Fold this sequence. Notes:
This protein is α/β, with parallel strands linked by helices. The chain folds into 2 domains: about 70-160, no CATH class; about 185-390, 3-Layer(aba) Sandwich (Aminopeptidase), CATH 3.40.630.40. The protein has helices at about 5-55, 70-85, 90-95, 110-125, 125-135, 225-245, 260-270, 305-325, 340-345, 360-365, 370-390, and strands at about 100, 105-110, 140-145, 150-155, 185-190, 195-200, 210-215, 245-250, 275-280, 290-295, 330-335, 350-355. The strands form 3 sheets. The chain has a 6-stranded mixed beta sheet with strand order 8-5-9-12-10-11, sandwiched between helices. A 4-stranded mixed beta sheet has the order 2-1-4-3. Pfam families: Amidase_3.
Amino acid sequence: MKKTSKTGINILIFIILILVLALGILAIVQYGRFRDQMEEKARQEAQAEAEATVTPTQTPTPEPTPDPSDPEVIREQLIGSIQTAIEENNVNTMANILRYTASDGSITAYPAEDVAEVLLHLKRDSADYWNFFTALRSESTSVNADGESQVLVLSTQDLRKMTNTAPKEGESIQPETPVGEGKMVAIDAGHQAQGDSNQEPIGPGASQTKARVASGTSGCVSGVPEYELNLTVALKLRDELERRGYSTYMIREDNEVNVSNAERAQLASQSGADILVRIHANGSENSSVAGALTMAPSTSNPYVDGQIVQECQRLSQLVIDSFCAVTGAQNQGVYQTDEMSGLNWCAIPATLVEMGYMTNPEEDARMQTEEYQALMVQGIADGIDSYFTS
């Protein structure tokens, strides 16, 4: 009988070891899979248990859409429009929204003058501004229809009683002394229907000359010549100043005249007036330029007394600040110049007001409206008041 070789035994042992190792690896793999399955099952059971204990989420109820026909919704929309109108000095919007019930039961519009007065007052008085809107939100203010438009109908026939611009019922107040009492203002509506290119000295004793009267500009949209707009505003300023107690002297009340700039200044000085206010409108090659400014002589002016120059500058600053505060126009400040015959020949404080640019489409159109003209006049008159009281 042959003996088993040592090599065969080694091979057998090696095979056995390989088999044992393979079975061990297989067992480890199977255990890993089993563990993963158990962990996944446990996770699913835990998730299912957690979901079972959570209260189902309630779908939030959407906010109801405001009913556009609801009077309260309409009231708030109209009040918002009025707030915008006050910010923009828009008398038309205010007048279109605010109405009162007339004695015959019809809905009647407030006069534009009353609306403009209230609008200006509210811009200046923050307390009355909020009192006014409190009154608009009260039950005494109803929403009604005027034609196809919704309007606010106030309970009073006097719009100004919603602010302190008029005495309350049963209340009597002592009239104030007008600011302008004893004061005279000369008003010069700049330019005239026909310019005059003949030359005159720009100031007393000057060798430099310029045209007696330039032709002025005209509206790029309206087509209105500047001399017409100037006279329209000047006449309204005259009426407003006289209402405030001033006496006035008009350089011209007609377009068909021929009065030079130097003559205008001399007429104002000789009239006994305390100040001269010259009314003009501006022009620019750039149609986007807009705003208002006043003109005054500089401190180095060789034709005007130094004390008068200071008063011209003070008057000009007060007028332009008031003008822009009332109208909302861009304030371009006081332009100092020694080239204006109508200022250089004047022996009393004087200012030249450039109300706006007729070469700017929006500003030209605005300056042709009754409402904006009323605001411009208000602003100039307020500046004159400030001059005599400060």
